[in-house]
Amino acid sequence: MLTIHAADAVFARGARCEAVAVDGGLIVGLGAAAELTAARPQARVRRWPGLLTPGLFNPWAAALLEAAYHPDPREADALGTAPLTGDALAALAMDDARWGASARRGLQRMLQHGTTAVAGPFRRPAVRSAVTRSGLRVREPETSAEPARGRADAPSLDPFAVLPPGMALDGELAVGGPADFAVFDVPVGEGPELPDGALRQQGAGSCVATVLAGRLVFRRR
Predict the structure, then answer these.
(1) Phi, then psi, of 200 in degrees rounded to 5
(2) Domain total for the chain?
(3) Among 161, 182, 204, which residue terminates a domain?
(4) CA-to-CA dists, residue 38 to 1, 12, 41, angstroms
(5) Would you say 156 and 45 are in contact if contact means Cβ atoms under 8 Å apart?
(6) Which CATH number does the domain housing residue 18 bear?
(7) How far apart are CA 63 and CA 87, in angstroms?
(8) Pick from 17, 64, 94, 137: CA 20 to 30 A from residue 179's CA?
(9) Same domain, 116 and 90
(10) Other C-beta atoms within 10 Å of 82: how many?
(11) Are residues 7 and 67 in the same domain?
């Protein structure tokens, strides 16, 4: 479906614009919202608050999915809502089915934080299957542009909490490129630079929409 995503600002190749036109899984236009909609009157238009950027890369995905348990909401009274590791994880009777269900919940939480790409490899079959079905891009360490980024830090669902915002982005938005992006409800500031301070302060939890291969896979409103 031809869709135009408009935001307060779009960060693309170090420049600012207002909207992204998507057809299938590809970006087919970047520019002023009025110009893109006038040229594509048949397009569905989605409007978002804040800043639209390339999707985020999470370099800790293997640890978050294979060395942590993401509780089911129905387990919140007994286990809480935060990922369980260490002794708390060891106390659980983990099997392939439970690892798979945990991974699916963890992947959904990553999408809620604007993630569109993760670092592997994933060694548990149930986790690997969940990642494959999610559609998230997998950047294996040997092929990642910056394989070591973030690896020395504690695993986090929020790349902005640890990495400089520019380093957390997975690639760039460009016509003809994959339609993988996220929108963060933060003040956009002025000029072509990323609003690093606002992204760090409000974090990836400010994500209101995630688009992966042209599909809206998460929306907060």
Answers:
(1) -65, -45
(2) 2
(3) 161
(4) 17, 21, 6
(5) no
(6) 2.30.40.10
(7) 15
(8) 64
(9) yes
(10) 12
(11) no
Could you tell me the maximum CA-CA distance found in the chain, to the nearest angstrom? 59
**Residues 35, 93: Cα–Cα separation, whole Å:** 56
What integer is the mean pLDDT of 23-31?
96
Residue of 97, 95, 9 whose CA lies nearest to 50? 9
Q: What is the pLDDT of residue 14?
A: 65
Residue 76 and residue 49 in one domain:
no
What is the overall mean pLDDT for the chain? 92
> pTM of the prediction?
0.91
> What's the gap between Cα 41 and its chain centre?
29
Domain that holds residue 85: 58-161
**Same-domain check for residues 205 and 155:** no
Q: What is the pLDDT of residues 41-92, one digit of tens each?
A: 999 999 999 999 999 999 999 999 999 999 999 999 999 999 999 999 999 9
Quickly list H helices, the chain. 33-39, 61-66, 76-79, 86-90, 96-112, 125-134, 165-168, 196-202
